[in-house]
Specification:
single chain, alpha+beta, BirA Bifunctional Protein, domain 2, Rossmann fold, 6-stranded mixed β-sheet, 22 strands, about 30% helix, about 25% strand, elongated, binds adenosine-5'-triphosphate, binds magnesium ion, aminoacyl-trna synthetase, ATP-binding, transit peptide
């Protein structure tokens, strides 16, 4: 138990939870029992049999990776069209948590949140020549007046035009770090792997405006550090690697890669120094580290983030200027920074889950606790009321867990069957009111699914353990 508590405390410290949890409201009321979240009233379609999993991208019907299979099986996502998914309630809860963590990290470095339209006028894209350069990836459409648009795959053009429209900017106001979390649209040639590569997905994109190249490089470092801090809080071992600039352009770029077998990128790391790079940036024949000449190791990764130092590539096109210290107009030095929000969620599930059971980064789990009362008609049935009291006690004594505790009221099922489901869903804590709930004092079986430990605790012990849980 002591070991468990120490580990939980260490986890708590590691995820560096910021203060001020948002008050939440219960979604469902169990009749006559006050406000409790009950599983039987959740919209949570389960397709636990693999042959019942709905068909997938491109209609191939092939299950292509673990996260996609698990997310379909437990009803986290439902296919709508190739590369497009309905995000179901558990997923939306997890994504909202992810966005809260991202907001904390972006605001900590001075980020200001905006929201730009997805409908993006063609003339912006013609100005940078990307209307042609983006080719078939750009989803294009016309309005009733024949005016052309695309559905934004990224927003360099839009944000630079926005800043350029502010005619009285002074160097004293810079840097600006503007970011948003919005849906992006890309007509990917091969959408696949569920949320890992969609045609419509959530991205966090930040755009920075500085008054000098030196200041812009400093800002670039600041955003990269915020990304590293975000992935550390999520417990994801991401590697920052040198990258190519692709169609976005600029002069310096890094990717944040999460090592995984299904990753579509290949990156090289040098075990003896800190060098790491996407293999696309290396010569084909290069097997040694350019920094220390040691042998390089290659790993597959999922690109979860990408940063670019843009210089004046976009500000010069749209004339995004500010008045410098000498009172003269000067072009803003820019950077742009993307995080694949839906991709991060799927990638986390991909690397943390077992073949059969979902696992979440603790901070992102849709619900922290699943409480399982005894089966109806079983010997332990008298403990049903205790389980209800425990539910109420937890949500009173541990305020951050309000709205985070689910009661599996499907009491026509055995405890074992419900435990199996809870294990599959990956709630960080599963609490069972079984035989030992009849002891004096009552003991509850607690499964700590992210550490694999199982302990028996009294009501006070349960509260002690759960009060360590970080909720964002
Ligand atoms: P990729 O090389 O995987 O196609 P990209 O380099 O084209 O990605 P960026 O333009 O750098 O992507 O976009 C920023 C981030 O958005 C990426 O790092 C990734 O996490 C995410 N992302 C890009 N494309 C997709 C997609 N089709 N589905 C989900 N997330 C995506
Ligand atoms: Mg990229």
């Amino acid at each position: 138990m002591e070991g468990l508590l120490t580990r939980c405390r260490a986890l708590a410290a590691c995820s560096r939870q910021l203060s001020g949890s948002i008050p939440r409201r219960f979604h469902h009321c169990a009749p006559g029992r006050g406000k409790r979240l009950v599983l039987s009233r959740m919209f949570q379609p389960q397709n636990l049999r693999e042959d019942q999993v709905p068909s997938l991208e491109g209609g191939s019907g092939d299950l292509t990776c673990k996260s996609q299979r698990l997310m379909l099986q437990v009803g986290l996502i439902h296919p709508a069209s190739p590369g497009c998914y309905h995000l179901l309630p558990y997923t939306v809860r997890a994504l909202e948590k992810l966005v809260r963590v991202i907001d904390q990290e972006m605001r900590a470095i001075g980020g200001q949140k905006v929201s730009m339209p997805s409908l993006s006028p063609a003339e912006l894209w013609r100005a940078t020549n990307r209307w042609d350069l983006m080719g078939k990836e750009l989803l294009r459409l016309r309005d009733r007046h024949g005016k052309e648009y695309c559905l934004g795959p990224t927003h360099e053009e839009a944000v630079t035009a926005l800043v350029a429209s502010q005619k009285t900017l002074s160097y004293k106001q810079l840097p600006f770090l503007l970011y948003q979390v919005t849906r992006k649209f890309r007509d990917e040639p091969r959408p696949r792997f569920g949320l890992l590569r969609g045609r419509e997905f959530y991205m966090k994109d930040m755009y920075t405006f500085d008054s000098s190249p030196e200041a812009a490089r400093q800002t670039y470092g600041l955003v990269c550090d915020a990304y590293s801090s975000l992935f550390a809080r999520l417990g994801l071992p991401c590697v920052k690697v040198q990258a190519g600039v692709g169609s976005i352009g600029g002069t310096m770029s890094h990717e944040f890669q999460l090592p995984a077998d299904v990753g579509e990128d290949q990156f090289a790391v040098c075990p003896s120094c800190s060098f790491s790079a996407n293999v696309e940036t290396l010569n084909l024949s290069q097997t040694n580290c350019p920094a220390c000449q040691g042998p390089l190791t290659e790993t597959k990764g999922i690109e979860v983030g990408h940063t670019f130092y843009l210089g004046t590539k976009y500000s010069s096109v749209f004339n995004a200027q500010f008045t410098n210290v000498h009172g003269k107009p000067s072009l803003a030095e820019m950077g742009c920074y993307g995080l694949g929000v839906t991709r991060i969620l799927a990638a986390a599930i991909e690397v943390l889950s077992t073949e059969y059971c979902l696992r979440w980064p603790g901070l992102l789990a849709p619900y922290q606790v699943c409480l399982i009362p005894p089966k109806k008609g079983s010997k332990e049935e008298v403990a049903t009321e205790l389980a209800g009291h425990l539910y109420d006690h937890i949500t009173e004594a541990v305020p951050q867990l309000r709205g985070e505790v689910l009661l599996d009221d499907r009491t026509h099922l055995t405890i074992g069957n419900r435990l199996k489901d809870a294990n599959k869903f990956g709630y960080p804590f599963v609490i069972i009111a079984g035989k030992r709930a009849l002891e004096a004092p009552a003991h509850y079986e607690v499964w700590c699914q992210n550490t694999g430990e199982v302990v028996f605790l009294t009501k006070e012990g349960v509260v002690g353990l759960l009060s360590q849980v970080q909720v964002v």
